[in-house]
Design goal:
4-stranded antiparallel beta sheet, binds zinc ion, 81 residues, alpha+beta, globular
Length: 81
């Protein structure tokens, strides 16, 4: 249903189907949340890949939802909650 970004397409070219699907699952679990409006979406939805990564990160970026430059928190949302 989702179009792959160029980075995702490129990665898909280099890895096996199995690894790529694992990357997709994990990248979907990584969420980016805007400090300003609370808008949340996954790394995957943003066209990125985050795989075999640990910890949380924060980026100072423009939020696509509210348009403000804000601290975007990157964290992993597990199925367990
Ligand atoms: Zn926002």
């Amino acid at each position: 249903m989702n179009e792959l970004s160029s980075i995702q397409k490129l990665t898909k070219f280099f890895v096996s189907e199995k690894i790529f699907s694992s990357m997709e699952t994990e990248s979907r679990a990584w969420k980016v949340k805007c400090n300003n409006c609370g808008h949340e979406r996954s790394i995957w939805e943003m066209g990125g890949i985050r795989w075999k990564a640990y910890g949380e990160k924060a980026l100072y970026r423009r939020c696509p939802n509210c348009g403000e430059r804000s601290l975007l928190k990157i964290y992993k949302k597990t199925a367990a909650g």
